[in-house]
Amino acid sequence: MTVTNTLSMSETDLAFRLLAALLLGALIGLQRGWVARHLAAGERIAGIRTHALVGLLGGFSAVLSDTLTPWVFPVTFIGVAAIALVAYRARLQHERNFSITGLIGLLLTFMLGAIALSVSVFLAAAGAVVTAMILDYKTEIHGLLARLEANELDAGLKLLLISVVVLPLLPNQGYGPGKAINPYEIWWLVVLIASISFVGYFAVRVAGARRGILFTSLFSGLSSTTALTLNFAKLSRQAPEASRLLAAGVLIACGTMFPRLLIYAYLINPDMIGLLMAPVVVMALSLYLPAVFIWRNIEQTVSLEKPVLERNPLDLSSALYFAALITVILLLGDWLTKALGEAGIYLLAAASGIADVDAITLSLTRLSLNGISLETAVLGIVIASSVNNLVKAGLAVWLGSGQLWRLVLLPMVASLLLGLGVGVWW
To answer: Is residue 416 pLDDT above 80, yes or no?
Structure first.
């Protein structure tokens, strides 16, 4: 975003931007005036008129900074801040209200007026809308903070640390044999898995067990079904009474994985859709139909509130373990490719499917453009998906409650056999 020189503007453009600064200030003032509507005239420090004029003042100060001297803007801003401080200090003599939110909103209104003139009207408008919403949702925001627990706040900060701080610092290039190890991509999977754990925790906490698990399952089906299976299997041990609900969530997530594969194929090589459609649809339906049956027969009173609130919202240990597993599979896949050449594609698909389907799907789809036949690519994707389902079934058996793995195992095996059968025959 570049700064605009007001000297180069036409009078019409200048007038439009000044009007925008006035209206954006009025928008924020409308909210502040409504909050203090019970006060008599003159008792409000800053209402709709004051905010509108402050926004306009910010716009004029930006214009005068270009035409007269750059000192106009900072001096005017300090003057507005000083007047506001005097008014807020006078209010303290009659009312013990130490909040400075209104003061910050007033100063922000001045800045937005200047942004409308010198940078972008649309950026200033977005800032004004967000400001008004933050000011208006005071009760909701404070209520959210009151319900937030210490471990949930810690988990949120840890998620920001590994995603916003650590991830951008990692090199996005390959290392090791065949340059198969990419630190950035592997850590991105750690962030993804941790995010699913985090989203799932709050989905169940806010929406309740049924709706929260449904939302989390669909979300994970578009990202990492293995991570969700791992999470739900462990949770079923903590809350055996919710095993049927969690089993349905696992099947929904695993079924949603297959439409995602079709999207990948369509975006990279649409010619694959005709061959890939039949096995993918069969595998998806073999998971969706049992999930719907289980879901429709679940008691409405199932609750996960207690066990969920006792667990860690951000399960980093599982995410790190999963990332280590992916690293091993990447090295193994590189070795198989070098040792067997094109004949190792199916072995590579099977090995990659242990940890993740996306990487092998994208790779085989690209190779189908000029390296391998469509039939080989489709069968490789089906093999990877089948093995991935088998791994998730194993996780359910290993980590889940008895009821969960009994509900999950048969549809998973059926999906594997049907997918392979249709993939070979089709």
So the answer is: yes
Confidence class of residue 396 from pLDDT cuts 50, 70 and 90? Answer: confident
Q: Among 82, 61, 73, 68, which residue's Cα sits nearest to residue 18?
A: 61
DSSP state of 8: G
Handedness of CA 205, 290, 229, 218 (dihedral sign): negative
| Helix or strand (DSSP H, E) at 413 | helix 402-425
What do you get for the CA distance between the two ends of the chain, in Å? Answer: 53
Kindly give the residue spans of alpha helices, DSSP state H, lying in 297-315: 305-310
Assess whether pLDDT exceeds 60 at residue 299: no
More confident site: 169 or 241:
169
pLDDT in tens, 227-255: 778 778 888 887 787 788 888 888 988 88
Asked if residues 384 and 358 have their Cβ atoms less than 8 Å apart, the reply is no
- Burial class of residue 104, CB neighbours in 10 A (0-12, 13-18, 19+): middle
Domain boundary among 144, 169, 190: 144
Amino acid at 209: A
Domain shared by 119 and 211, yes or no = no
95 φψ region: left (φ > 0), alpha (ψ -120 to 50), beta (else): beta
| Rounded Cα–Cα distance for residues 364 and 5 (Å) | 52
Is residue 109 within 8 A of residue 58, CB to CB? The reply is: yes
Residues counted in the chain? 426
Residues 6+ apart with CB under 8 A from 297: 244
DSSP 112-133: HHHHHHHT-HHHHHHHHHHHHH
pTM for the structure as a whole: 0.55
Q: Cα–Cα distance between 365 and 374 in angstroms, integer? A: 8
Distance of CA 325 to the CA centre of its chain: 24
pLDDT in tens, 72-84: 989 999 999 998 8
Q: Say yes or no: 139 and 161 in one domain.
A: no
**What residue numbers bound the domain in which 219 lies?**
150-425
**Residue 1, in any domain of the structure:** no
Does residue 285 share a domain with residue 361?
Answer: yes
Query: pLDDT digit string (tens) for 342-392?
Result: 567 787 788 777 766 777 776 777 767 776 778 888 888 888 888 888 888
User: What are the strands, taking DSSP E only, across 59-146?
Assistant: none
